[in-house]
């Protein structure tokens, strides 16, 4: 990761020439262990190929692609040369930034620098700076310009009152990526300021990513504090106040021209009055960048030279991004785009020169901008690794009768036609042929989609599905959607761009409300939006079967699963993914049978192919014959009966036939789930993931808020034990109000207890809230991701210190065993802890070195691997030797094949998703403890997870 800080800077050095300066820079990189000495030759070669002078007295020397293997670690070192160094071409360098980067990470640095490069004359300030902090401030400190453009103006928006208008303004800022969740709350807290003429001003400072000003006017007359409300400014404030804009606004109001804003009928008029970015109606062209390392200094320079040959203005932005773009003539602005290989650049040029300039730019980009480039794969095909499988080279479809063994992700048997959902690529122009023509095109597309949906309504035999389609039809008629669409058309957008923009904005508004039901509506809206877009672009979306179907996808994101309609989706089959991916966890929670990691061939299935999916065994049968289907239906019936029987006995304890008891508890994410878990047979909560209390908030919840959340769980448990995991964020699970440096390898970075110990104040507040909530009830607290004894002791000591202030009778403190080192140290830890809870999801990923969310490898991250079982065995043995108990709270605890082994290994508690509790209890009751112990001993001696699964499968 390339970031700038004062420690990297050497001040006041001297170099007689560029060669000497490069040597000093290379020495400093070598001295810091960033590169091998051979990197200097690469830096010299690079200067020969083209000067690394950037502008403003700054150069950014770095090696060539050939010397990348000389880089040990990514980093930068800066040297100030107050007397200047001649960098050739008449340029003098006062600050050289030597970059050691193995790939295109330096683009990030260039982005950081561009703000500084765009401001006034920096070179003299860099030369005169007396300490490194001053240099950092100069490079990073330039205030960001206020965003005020057409996307931030909403005229005549539907709003019933001030709050709604405020919300619309905040949404515009969010859509423009000026703010994130949490901003609206800070805006709502600020005092509205009347400006006269019915205009009001509000500003918010929290959750602001870049400064921006939105202006909204209501469609109907509104009042605020007894005064008219005809227009509202919402400022996302960051850094200095936008003085220029405020002065302009004051002038306007003093001159009695406030009405031009409060009664504005065009976005352009508002922008002209306020001095915002007026949208240019210029010819445009899109082209994908093929340069291996993106638009770095050398190709960017070539591009500026092409643009500079034209007298008028030429702009560029990343396709799909809002705003007017940046001048192609400015090297620093181009670098600020941070464009990477495969991204599309959208060029636009003043009409007078567009005819010549756009083709010239296109030709230059196609020619590689001075570099030899590998052509990009043809449109629609994937580029490098990590591209969605649904778009990779063609693979043969599975044949009828074929049996595919994949990973069991959520139990149950599902039968139905396949709906293969691959992301269609919609290719369309951004600019339209005039509002009337574009509106007519949308009308036609809507009519066609309306007919399609009507057909589905008429053919479906199920009332609940019919209702969904009726809702879709209502969505197509939504006046707010059409209003937004029209506004976008008025700005010159094509029907496709306007429709896509309007649907996305509406869906984001719904999603922003964090309401489960509204999130489902948002998914419906996006769904219907895609259908219409498909019609507009002539791309047919797969017809949704009228009966419940099996959704086949490349990989399902947790949000996809969460938004699945359980009435329509009978099962989920994915090409990639593993059983502990969060999407699989959600599928289990929702009770949708799922098989994951089946390989890319499933994406080649013909739409409507009958599939039989066995989520217990990770099996898929393609177009099974009638006897197989019959058999599956019987099995499904048996499974259903088994589930019903287990449910009827859910409150009975889980005791094996020979009298060995195991506690079965629930994994929950929020207090509201507790009562249901108890109703489903939970004997306690074995894992309360406290992240939900912290996420989606603008700031860390205070002690009182947390205490209330924890009390809710304890109240619902009514004396049953609660095992709480302290906050487990960081790495892949960030918190908005706790900004952390980006990490190359978040799973091996600052997460879990490592992060909590860096901010003990947060941990202390959480612990205080937990202790205060206990009120005599049994409370167990455990710490996630403990890898060392010191981490455990630090967390324990803090808790015990607080316990002196807030006494709790029944308190146990434990360690989550998620890192192999914790399992290996179990004999030491067991002397001190009260219990262990094994997080097999993480333990498996760290033991097998497979990222649990890895798109292709995670299917192999099987917790039944003998190596993982051995770690579990060691933990249990150590704990029992000291009279301590052990739980398993990872997904493995709910895997029916794993239950006999975990019981046989002596695990005392299994904590699983609430829906699985009854089945786990029933499974334990079927077991014989001695037999399970023998089975576990056998499993430990096997060579692979597959062998273990086969062993247990046979023993069933
Ligand atoms: C685990 O790692 O097994 C666990 C229970 O924690 P999470 O899945 O929340 O990381
Ligand atoms: Mg974990």
From TrEMBL:
EC number: 2.7.3.9
One Pfam family per UniProt: PEP-utilizers_C
Reaction equations catalysed: L-histidyl-[protein] + phosphoenolpyruvate = N(pros)-phospho-L-histidyl-[protein] + pyruvate
Names of the cofactor(s): Mg(2+)
Top-level class of the enzyme under EC nomenclature: transferase
Residues annotated as domain PTS EIIA type-2: 2-142
CDD domains xrefs: PTS-HPr_like, PTS_IIA_fru
Domain of life where this protein originates: Bacteria
UniProt-listed PANTHER family: PHOSPHOENOLPYRUVATE-PROTEIN PHOSPHOTRANSFERASE
Family: Belongs to the PEP-utilizing enzyme family.
Protein name per Swiss-Prot or TrEMBL: phosphoenolpyruvate--protein phosphotransferase
Gene it is expressed from: ptsP
